[in-house]
Amino acid sequence: MPKKKKKGYAKYGYLFAMPFMIAYLIFSLYPTLYTMIIGFTDLKGIGKTSFRFLTEDIFANYRTILTSPTFQLALKNTVVMWICNFVPQLLLALLLTAWFTDRRFKIPGEGAFKVLFYMPNIITAATVAILFYALFGYPMGPVNSLLQKLGILSEPFNFLVKKTISRGIVIFIQTWMWYGYTMIILISGVLGISTEIFEAAEVDGANGWQTFWMITLPNIKTILLFTLVTSLIGGLNMFDIPKLFMQGGPDNATLTLGVFIYNLAFSGGYLYNRASAASMITFMIIIAASAVLFWTLRDKDEEALRKEIKRRNKPVKAAKRKEAAS
């Protein structure tokens, strides 16, 4: 009796994945490759543009960007603002995660609190920029009016012309918008930990702090790595709030890499070649920083165990190869 052929369902998987693959190739891969290419050309202008590859010095655009004081300032601003918003963002998210996942007490209205904390993340950046621009308005604005009523200010103060204050407001906005998202990610990681581990800790007499520090944090190390890497990518690509709120000012105090690239490509000279070079440099910085984070936060115990297993299997593989050769 002939064997019955198995019905293959793989083709349906390819069929369902095809729309995503087509969209990815057109709207993601192609623009990335095109950007990579024009970084080695002299493509610029908004009318008739030339697409001539640089022959004498193919890395001229990259050298120009790397030696640009404005690019160096934008990189410095981006790193400082990312670190200053990510650290409090993560600490606040960890605190709320410990609060919401503590097994010892139940928080009334827990779901409502989670929604309120996450809500800033779903508000569009343009709306947030308009809101904070109105709050710190000069001479009439809610913040100025409140501080004058409290007697802190005797006359209106223009917050948005001060470098440190403007940068601090952008940092606060980024923290306020993203701590709820980070909290949700961390909570999902904690909920994936086996309850038996927490029960064993309670039996052993561990308090809430010991449980969180010795059990929760080590078990969400992968989630923390994911949060750190995605925040790094988003932080180095920071664009919407600095651009929409302060236009990179005052005096380039809130100029980020994203705003710098936008200004090169679409403001003034339309230097697409240099903007592409700056984009690729940012891309390489993100890859290098992510690789360092992955290496630093790797599971050292698992890596040591894998090396030990490999070392033990070496004699067995050598014996098999010798046997096969004979």
List the helices and strands and how they pair.
Layout: H1 10-38, H2 60-66, H3 69-101, H4 110-122, H5 125-135, H6 142-149, H7 163-191, H8 195-203, H9 208-219, H10 221-236, H11 240-246, H12 257-266, H13 272-296, H14 300-325
Helix pairs in contact: 1-13, 2-13, 3-7, 3-10, 4-7, 5-11, 7-11, 10-13, 12-13
Structural class: mainly alpha
Q: What is the approximate shape?
A: flat
Taking all Cα atoms into account, the compactness measure Rg is: 27 Å
Instruction: Write the H/E string, N to C.
Output: HHHHHHHHHHHHHH
Structure summary, number of beta strands: 0
Helix-residue proportion: over 70%
Notable characteristics:
326 residues, single chain, mainly alpha
Describe this structure in words.
By secondary structure, this protein is an all-alpha fold. It contains 14 helices and no strands. It is flat and about 80 Å long. The two termini are 42 Å apart.
In short:
The protein has 326 residues and is an all-alpha fold. 72% of the residues lie in helices and 0% in strands.
